Amino acid sequence: MTSSAPASADSPVIATARRARTAAAALAPLPRTARDRALLAVADALEARAAEVVEANAADVARAREAGTGETVIDRLTLTAERIAAIAFDVRDVVALPDPVGEVVRGSTLPNGLELRQIRVPLGVVGIIYEGRPNVTVDAAVLCLKSGNAALLRGSSSAYASNEALVGVLRDAVAGAGLPADAVQLVPGTSRDSVRELMRARGLVDVLIPRGGASLIETVVTESTVPVIETGTGNCHVYVDEYADLDMAVELLVNSKAQRPSVCNAAETVLVHAGIADRFLPLALAALTAAGVTVHGDEAWRKAGDGAGVEVVPATDADWETEYLSYDIAAAVVPDLDAAVAHIRRWTSGHTEAIVTRDGTVAKRFVSLMDSAAVMVNASTRFTDGGRFGFGAEIGISTQKLHARGPMGLPELTTTRYVVTGEGHTVE
Predict the structure, then answer these.
(1) In principle, which of 127, 179, 376, 410 could form an S-S bond with 354, CB 3.0–4.6 Å?
(2) In 3D, which of 361, 357, 335 has the Cα closest to residue 245?
């Protein structure tokens, strides 16, 4: 994607952004009860109109299959009545979450008697650019509404029919509950031009959040004139320490990799301490093979594969840096904890790392040396998720270090302002 001139003031994308800005101004002062009422209407409407959403989604899935799209991507694209019911359930969970808007972050009375408060307020207009998962359409819109923001949704062209149907349901429900329908809008167009225009809508769009692969995120981060909250790819690691419980390690490894390999919190590399490699590698190979996972391993893993009758693909540097999002995993044996840390810090995308160990001192050192958004101790990497953290549906997982990091829930969709109250105070 290359740079282009700023969007025309009367382009459909800019017109959409202007309507979102008007809607955001109307949303900001509304009480929690009004926003929650709209979200409950959204949940009800999703269940009532699931059939039409599934029908639209089926057209997207059919086109994807005709184009030869892989099954892991098809899985991310697919909506069923059961998945829509689960999305509606998640919406109701968000309703029950605390409202961040108006929260006093800090406050004090200054020596001169002025009352100072820092309070949370909505960001305003939030643009989300994302790839083939239409459930993100609902997640993003719901979290934006709950936090008082207007949502501009730009999904992939592969899910356009699904997203159009979902946004239609959302807008009708929101309007029926008395909120402006333009608080939820699908960015018009399926070409890259519409993405470029959204990225140039500085002054109309307050922040952009890209969700997807490395290429999408890099494009938005480098080309947008709108401020960006960077979500990162998930090159996640599992380190099996010499003091690990081997049965636990096998279970956590398989869960981290194979429970749902097409998502960003799935493990992509496993590192094993040399002190337990002889015992652990045969167990891991058997379990990974049974789960349908192909191992891309170093020499130690290939020798173990030969001994177990399992083919291990020779690993290269490309494997260490790859976010597979498939039933593949890179694997190496390392001499010690420091070597594991060095490998992770070289290749990680900063998303999630996990250690399996029974030694608390080792676990503490591993955590202190990691520089990622989430670190798991004796737990699957798949737990890095807004829902599993108790935040409700997440807007994304940030791997940057400014404002928001890790699963981004409601507080991360707010900024703050200072309110200063006096009694005729003047500056001398």
Answers:
(1) 376
(2) 357
Dist CA 313 CA 324 (whole Å): 14
Per-residue model confidence as pLDDT tens digits over 161-176: 999 999 999 999 999 9
- What letter represents residue 411's amino acid? P
Nearest partner of 268 among 352, 210, 334, judged by Cα: 352
Model confidence pLDDT, tens digit, residues 319-375: 999 999 899 999 999 999 999 999 999 999 999 999 999 999 999 999 999 999 999
Pair 80, 46: CB distance under 8 Å: no
Using a CB cutoff of 8 Å and minimum separation of 24, what contacts does 109-112 make? 112/425
Q: Which residues does 68 contact at the CB level (< 8 Å), separation at least 6?
A: none
pTM of the model: 0.83
Res. 4 pLDDT band, cuts 50 70 90: very low
Q: Could you tell me which residues are beta bridge partners of residue 205?
A: 202
Q: What is the pLDDT of residue 5?
A: 42
3-state secondary structure 362-397: HHHHHHHHCCCCEEEECCCHHHCCCCCCCCCCCCCE
Can you read off the two tokens belonging to residue 257? 């990799």
Structure tokens at 327: 């039933």
Residue 222 has pLDDT above 50, yes or no: yes
**CA-to-CA distance for 79 and 58, rounded, in angstroms?**
8
Q: Residue 37 contacts by C-beta under 8 Å, 6 or more apart in sequence?
A: 177, 178
CA 374 to chain centre: 13
Measured distance CA(95)–CA(101) in Å, rounded: 14
Q: What is the pLDDT of residues 364-411, one digit of tens each?
A: 999 999 999 999 999 999 999 988 888 766 788 888 888 788 888 899
